[in-house]
Amino acid sequence: MVLATTIIVGSLVMILWTITVRGIRSLNWDMVSKVPEGGFYIGKGGGLLNAIIGSVYITMGATLLGLLISIPVVLYINIYARKDSWLATVARFTFDVSFGIPSIVYGAFGFTIMVYFGLRASLLAGIITVTLVIIPILARAMDEVIRRTPGELSDATYSLGATRWETSKVFLRQSLPGIMTAILLSSGRAIGDAASVLFTAGYTDSIPASLGQPAATLPLAIFFQLSSPIQEVQDRAYAAALILTVIVLIISLGSKYFSKKLSKNKI
Amino acid sequence: MTFESPHIRVKDLNVHIGDHHILKNICLDIPDKKITSFIGPSGCGKTTLLKTFNRLLDRDKEVRVSGEVLLDGEDIYGRQVEVTSMRRKMGLLSQRPFPLPMSIYDNIAYGPRIHGTRKKKELNQSVEYHLRATGLWEEVKDRLNSPATSLSIGQQQRLCLARGLAVEPEIILGDEPTSALDPLSTQRIEELFLQLKDKYTIVLVTHILRQARRVSDYIVFIYMGEIVEFGPTEELLLNPKEKLTREYVKGYIS
Ligand SMILES: Nc1ncnc2c1ncn2[C@@H]1O[C@H](COP(=O)(O)OP(=O)(O)O)[C@@H](O)[C@H]1O
Ligand SMILES: [Mg+2]
Fold first, then answer.
1. How does strand B226-232 pair with strand B90-93?
2. Minimal CA–CA distance to B204: which of B34, B27, B7, B12?
């Protein structure tokens, strides 16, 4: 057990160490504040702002869209449908299966749909594909919290004459810390996933101005630059990795802080 | 035992959960503005019976309820009954107090709000009135905006009572409402029930015979899903007609 723990902690430290040491070399203000300039990919000026913004857009868009879809589903199977109805069973089974599907499959699926409709790679297509990837994560985590809420809560609201919709709102409030955790889990996945955005969001050197334009993302920035033979460009991949890690860290600390605050107040 | 015009009349009630026959041919009259206690060993069906009164039970797929529960003569399982407005007529106190995830104030104001009261002044009045009615006002008036979970368990149970009273019910259903409470808080709840029975019909599930004796006017003894005996408190406890009742009462009191 000690060995296993050491291996886990050790590899985390080594990962952080490697990306920090190699990334810090090329990490400067330009890297986070500028889009690539001409010749960026052979080591000349510019930065990764396109990929940072693209990743943030896709993550926020997918998280919002994912919540918009999974909250009603979770409320439906927990509060509207009768306990152990076949629909709830089917929905939970679907979450479990789609949770296990690798994101490259979602990417391929998104790509097929795009081709069918004659669309090109775009921010919107990326958001939709990533949404599909994170819905099972969001829905499973929220289902878990809401299902664990004691029956006394619904007994209380129903006996006050509340409707199911009013009861749902109380359940959401009660589950807020758990929902925050679900958002954290899914946005971590959304921002770091390369396979789902590869064909669907595309890649570009500019910041997308509309949903119809392609968008760069940090994981792909890492991927493309790491495959460059030029040492300096490779280092930039590590800088991108460092930026990605810092963003994930901020998200996770931020949501820890919020859920602690929320559960302390128990609102 | 039957009454002229009972507040609740139960006729031939049967409840099945899955393959289990939980309540068997229940016929029962709950008198108006009295305290009626359900006693009986754990698992005999007291909670189930209580929950059939405000239809908290038929949300499960597995549960089948047949028979009638008449509230002032009207069957609450009837087709045209609006479940939410029927439920409002009964306040429920559960075994463990369960405050809503909001402030003390909002807990009390929740009921009036969902039933359409918007005016701040009316809400304030209602909150103060019902907190006073449950003896909480002096204890919490300076921290109405604190989360309800910051109260002690005993205070939380009185808050839940106040929350239920704020929708102006006619009946209070209590499912072993003092089982999680300390003796002092238990005493306060019992005193409240005795005060409230002037205005409300109270049905109290309890596993404490002493409590049944202290507060109730009538006692219903339930055993394995059937009503064994129903009678005035002293009569049932001191002079039971049925052998089963006698054994149960003896086993607990002495
Ligand atoms: N949801 C349920 N599913 C299956 N059996 C249940 C359920 N709820 C209650 N029961 C059964 O119904 C019987 C009566 O339970 P209950 O009314 O809670 O008893 P009491 O409140 O008197 O302790 C018990 O045997 C219990 O196991
Ligand atoms: Mg019980």
1. unpaired
2. B34
What pLDDT does A263 receive? 64
CB–CB of B160 and A82 under 8 A?
A: no
Of chain B, the percentage scoring pLDDT greater than 70 comes to 97
Ligand 1 centre to CA of B41 (Å) is: 12
The finding on whether B17 has its CB within 6 A of some atom of ligand 1 is: yes
CB contact under 8 A, A161 and B173: no
> Which residues contact residue A85 at a Cβ distance below 8 angstroms, ignoring those fewer than 6 apart?
A77, B61
Q: Is the CB of B56 less than 8 angstroms away from the CB of A170?
A: no
Question: Which residue segments constitute the domains of chain A, with CATH numbers given?
Answer: 2-265 (1.10.3720.10)
Tokens of B211: 């409590």
Residue numbers of chain A with a pLDDT score lower than 50: 266-267
ipTM of the complex in this document: 0.93
Q: Whose CA is nearest to atom 27 of ligand 1?
A: B43
pLDDT tens figures, A53-82:
999 999 999 999 999 999 999 999 999 988
Range of the domain at B138: 100-168
Please write the tens of the pLDDT for every residue from A214-256.
999 999 999 998 888 888 888 889 999 999 999 998 888 887 7
Quick one: what percent of chain B has pLDDT higher than 90? Answer: 90
Q: Is the shortest distance between the CB of B42 and ligand 1 below 6 Å? A: yes
**CA nearest to B59 within chain A:** A82
At A232 the pLDDT is: 84
Residue B157 CA to ligand 2 center (angstroms) comes to 17
Q: Looking at the domain assignment, is residue B94 inside a domain?
A: no
B36 falls within a domain: no
Name every chain A residue with its beta carbon within 8 A of the beta carbon of B61: 82-85
Number of structural domains chain B divides into: 1
Selection from B66, B71, B19, B68 nearest residue B203 by Cα: B71
Question: Chain A partners of B17 at a C-beta cutoff of 8 Å?
Answer: none
Residue B110 Cα to ligand 2 middle (Å): 26
| Residue B106 confidence (pLDDT) above 80 | yes
- List b or e across A38-50, with b for residues whose CB sees 16 or more CB atoms inside 10 angstroms: eebeeeeebbbbb
Q: Using an 8 Å CB-CB cutoff, list chain A residues near B51.
A: 155
A78 min Cα distance to partner chain B (Å): 11
